[in-house]
């Protein structure tokens, strides 16, 4: 059953045509990977799903993005609640200049959870989920800026998990992580699949192959091919896809 | 060959760096030396007059009986309205302009307008306060009228400084917050403002200092030069320290010029306390990367 | 409120279609509230402009705008009054010029020192000290100019007048140094350290990092501090009244007495001329001139800082 | 001031004539020291009366009087027709009360030993409009051939107006190329620092700086005796033509108030006169105070 | 022949012991990879080589780091010239807020190259080297901030190449790049080996295996094992190394 439906989506940054006639349906409780060369529009598409592109003035969008058959670009949509349903992890770690605890508790607090015990619980669960708990459990009051790059990114993942979203958007979430943490995160992603729909942008084709159920390959703002991961990597329909995944590209 | 060239060039760059290091350091020292000279002059003149009586007496025609009590309380009364009010209005305006305002002609107009207000001479604010607060609003020549005038006077500085502080917060922080489902206001309140606070405080302190030291506009809106009672409410008459100091400095008798210096010392002590509070707050919030 | 569980299980209906409770949420109210508050500064300007215009209307009935704007003599209070505002503008310009020559390089230099060269501890100690300079009542600066700076100038150039534009300008400059250095330093401080690291890693000296990376990246903040400082210089009254004399002239001689627009406004409004007379109204005419001049300066500064601004996000 | 009108409530008990209320004074900074001294001593006697004194200038003093914000205006010059009219428009009238003499003093550097006496004509030659005097020798060939440095009060001040009227013959008519300052202490610094300087300002500033300055004795004409400014010569009128009265202007309607009457009486009393002298002014002849008091209802 | 000699190096951030008794010799014109879990001190060690740690007040160092037998912590060392000899690419892309051209030309300019033609040439060569030329050649005047994350990182690599260093330090230079660009950079690194000594921090063990001649494995600030890459990955001496490279770690 598809939870996200993208239909004839075009996106412009000013005059620049960044997404061209994108259509795809993303299945509920599955993992979908977006792959493609740098600048092809993967991050841009990801951001249309939780309307983060609203923030960029020059963006113009046509077409429809529906979640559970509701067009999220419908003017009556409550963007904040939408984003609560859709967690996001960015390409660059961007912790708040607050303590580790406050970083993770930020989302739940925003959404009205005040109870200290409940917050403690959420923070612990989320940090465990992001494979960071053991390293920081004694230092929750420490500033997040004291962490290494990798630790910071894991903190950002924990922060996204803390709002318990339905869909999780991840923009190269592991590109700043070491293999151990990456592995943990990948395992976690697999686990989460039971409850969540996950969309992940990655440069690491092995990662896409390892974790995802379906993969979309982008080029210059277009979806070249979108199919089951196993099919796409073993037997792509398109020549371009094949060139890319075999590294024979460019 | 190349190596030698590079080293020669490097020596030049290093020398340039050293020269400028010295220049920059001297610039800083220049300000400090100027401050030291001013302070020494003031301390030499005023320290002898500074005692408990000076703090607890009112103004008098006799230098040795003169004190600054009414002025201290007047300044405190005024700042207790001006500081919070200008802070709230200033930061609110800065938030509006940086976080909400679209880049249209109206908001650019407000922006230019604020920058321009920062350059309007203080006496003009005095005329404004006299017309609007004293006469039209009927507050009379009261603490309230004086405080509101001062609020308008220092507002542009707080706004501009706060705007710069808010601008400096990286967009990635805002994005992180929005992506967690925070609305704009929550993002401002919980992410933008805490990070911008050190900068905002710097601007505020500078402008509060200015409010504490201003004379001309307050004379115009009717802070009086001689009063012996303390205000009981915001509708009472008052005087402030710089007016008292100004009055003393203008008298012909030499002793009064020293009394004025004593007054300046008290004023500076008050500023110092204010700065100390702000620096404490600033360091508390300034978590550097 | 057992965490967001129900919303997931209970109904497939998208929760984000639910409206927030009441349309009067903080998030909706705040922009309106804030915009209203931002309006205060607009009202201030309107108030100032209305007062200046209505009060100077009487003046411009008696004196033609051409005489006012292009006359080269300003002696409104003499028996045979002349109403040419140019000498006052010249005086203001001279003071501002001297003050900028003193304050811009020194303020900027000490901002760079504090932000790029000074150890953190030194910076945290010196910065607040400089900020105290901003709070000293200007009358103190005025006497400082008269009893300290002027004698020094006279020692170097004996024919200097007791009241002169140079001494007053220097001290106005000293007064605005902390404002410029403190606000510029804040702007420089806000430049991400990753940019500095990139520059250092390429073998930049501190000077190169400061001038080629940090300063361009914080340009708009630096310009803003310059504008604030200069506005303050233009608007400064007491120092000029005490140390620069009260003699409007067009000589462009920094060693002579001059009068600025602000000094004229203050001394005349606190003087003994007849309330309501043309002479008294001159202060509003000068006031509106000053207003227009600062307006033009700010528009120019806005243009400059927009043009050279570098974004670092 | 309406806000402290309730204060009389806590009086009344023992003595019916115990005063209370608020008196607000504003105006010339020249008169300020006198009004402040009188207010200080008056309040020491009547501690339920609050007197405030401000110094925003004669013009602003009248402006505040017209607006009804004060009851007494301090002025270093007489009220002008425009101001009388404006008061009339408000249904008010100001009562003129001279309170002391300020002897405008012409001062020179202590090292100046040639110009210790000057005639009014000589002063006029120096100060009049279009004066060609550049050097001392232009006034009197026996005097040094050195440039005169002239200092004086700003053109907005009452001192300027009076001096030009008395010396040059027309109010506000003066050569323009002298060095004006609004702050008399600053003028003191100027003249005391330059052997060839000359200036004029209020008597009190001379009295306090006699060690740094000398006063010029004035001769009304060539044949008259030179008179130096002293308390005696100013008081008995022999110091001519530069002693001018300074004024207070209570608004007529306020004279009905008991506390204002008492305040004015105190102002004109011998204590009041002594206070004026204490702060550097010279008391008027007794009959002028009597005349002031006769204006009270 | 070794160009970098590290001897008994200890580094503290305040009280925190971040590098413990590190000793290693790095061969000239070879590629050395640093691997290890997040927070183990790889970036820290890299930064000691061009004295970037000088910037952090709390850092205290003991031991010696020599380049060509000169201790670079010797007080007479000219740090700027040292850094010109040692290019660096950071974990996070950090272009200057200037045009693409100005970013690349920055280094040559500060080192005294004024000639416009020469600069043009350096900019082109460096951008080509970083596999970015084709994408930006028409837009050299555009702000670097308009580029995508990957493009930005490649720009930073170009910028480092432009000062023509002898040693190149790379802190996860490809973690924000797509495979195509990564491949290009890896090829480039191989090419550069002819002239340069390259030290690369990476989370991607495949990358380490692919490009490097020698690999050092770090754990908690210690060098656990440092040997030829082929040896380390096929037949590690240490149990910990084996656990890490087989992902059986933690
Ligand atoms: N805010 C923006 N304004 C203008 N152009 C933009 C903006 N953001 C991205 N672009 C452009 O849109 C295109 C797609 O960018 P996007 O960030 O989606 O790429 P990507 O596939 O995520 O690349 P990468 O793997 O490097 O992150 C790029 O050419 C980029 O330069
Ligand atoms: N400036 C600093 N002040 C204090 N501690 C620091 C600082 N920089 C790094 N650390 C600490 O030193 C340790 C090593 O950090 P380093 O950045 O070298 O790790 P790394 O191996 O590069 O990790 P990653 O792969 O996550 O980048 C970490 O525990 C980190 O928290
Ligand atoms: Mg991307
Ligand atoms: Mg690292």
TrEMBL record, chains A, E:
<dbReference type="GO" id="GO:0005524">
    <property type="term" value="F:ATP binding"/>
</dbReference>
<dbReference type="Pfam" id="PF00005">
    <property type="entry name" value="ABC_tran"/>
</dbReference>
<dbReference type="InterPro" id="IPR027417">
    <property type="entry name" value="P-loop_NTPase"/>
</dbReference>
<feature type="domain" description="ABC transporter">
    <location>
        <begin position="4"/>
        <end position="245"/>
    </location>
</feature>
<dbReference type="InterPro" id="IPR017871">
    <property type="entry name" value="ABC_transporter-like_CS"/>
</dbReference>
<dbReference type="InterPro" id="IPR005670">
    <property type="entry name" value="PstB-like"/>
</dbReference>
<keyword id="KW-0813">Transport</keyword>
<protein>
    <submittedName>
        <fullName>Phosphate ABC transporter ATP-binding protein PstB</fullName>
    </submittedName>
</protein>
<keyword id="KW-0067">ATP-binding</keyword>
<dbReference type="InterPro" id="IPR003593">
    <property type="entry name" value="AAA+_ATPase"/>
</dbReference>
<dbReference type="InterPro" id="IPR003439">
    <property type="entry name" value="ABC_transporter-like_ATP-bd"/>
</dbReference>
<keyword id="KW-0547">Nucleotide-binding</keyword>
TrEMBL record, chain B:
<feature type="transmembrane region" description="Helical">
    <location>
        <begin position="20"/>
        <end position="44"/>
    </location>
</feature>
<dbReference type="InterPro" id="IPR000515">
    <property type="entry name" value="MetI-like"/>
</dbReference>
<feature type="transmembrane region" description="Helical">
    <location>
        <begin position="187"/>
        <end position="208"/>
    </location>
</feature>
<dbReference type="InterPro" id="IPR035906">
    <property type="entry name" value="MetI-like_sf"/>
</dbReference>
<feature type="domain" description="ABC transmembrane type-1">
    <location>
        <begin position="72"/>
        <end position="278"/>
    </location>
</feature>
<keyword id="KW-0812">Transmembrane</keyword>
<dbReference type="Pfam" id="PF00528">
    <property type="entry name" value="BPD_transp_1"/>
</dbReference>
<feature type="transmembrane region" description="Helical">
    <location>
        <begin position="259"/>
        <end position="281"/>
    </location>
</feature>
<feature type="transmembrane region" description="Helical">
    <location>
        <begin position="143"/>
        <end position="166"/>
    </location>
</feature>
<keyword id="KW-0472">Membrane</keyword>
<keyword id="KW-0813">Transport</keyword>
<keyword id="KW-1133">Transmembrane helix</keyword>
<dbReference type="InterPro" id="IPR005672">
    <property type="entry name" value="Phosphate_PstA"/>
</dbReference>
<feature type="transmembrane region" description="Helical">
    <location>
        <begin position="117"/>
        <end position="137"/>
    </location>
</feature>
<keyword id="KW-1003">Cell membrane</keyword>
<feature type="transmembrane region" description="Helical">
    <location>
        <begin position="70"/>
        <end position="97"/>
    </location>
</feature>
<protein>
    <recommendedName>
        <fullName>Phosphate transport system permease protein PstA</fullName>
    </recommendedName>
</protein>
<comment type="similarity">
    <text>Belongs to the binding-protein-dependent transport system permease family. CysTW subfamily.</text>
</comment>
